């Protein structure tokens, strides 16, 4: 996914309840395995 605003306003980077622009963009395997839309 691409980030549009980078501040959590637009919701474009939201996966479940996680905003990649605010909570990431780097995640460990445990965090990624909990997200339904990711394939790890």
Structural features, described:
By secondary structure, the protein is α+β, with helices and mostly antiparallel strands. It has one domain. The protein contains 2 helices and 2 strands, in the order ββαα. It has helices at residues 20-23, 29-33, and strands at residues 14-15, 18-19. It has a two-stranded antiparallel sheet with strand order 1-2. A hairpin with a 2-residue loop joins strand 1 and strand 2. It is elongated and about 25 Å long. The mean pLDDT is 81.
Question: Which bin fits the share of residues in helices?
Answer: 10-25%
Could you describe the largest sheet, including whether it forms a barrel? 2 strands, antiparallel
Count of spatially separate domains = 1
Evaluate the radius of gyration. 10 Å
State the end-to-end distance: 15 Å
How many strands appear in the DSSP assignment? 2
Mean pLDDT: 81
Low-pLDDT residue intervals, each spanning 5 or more residues:
none
Oligomeric state, counting identical vs distinct chains: single chain
SS element count, helices: 2
Estimate what percentage of residues fall within beta strands. 5-15%
H/E element sequence: EEHH
Strand order of the largest sheet: 1-2
């Amino acid at each position: 996914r691409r980030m549009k605003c980078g501040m959590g306003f637009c919701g474009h980077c939201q996966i479940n309840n996680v905003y990649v622009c605010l909570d990431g963009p780097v995640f460990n395997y445990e965090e990624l395995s909990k997200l339904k839309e990711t394939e790890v």
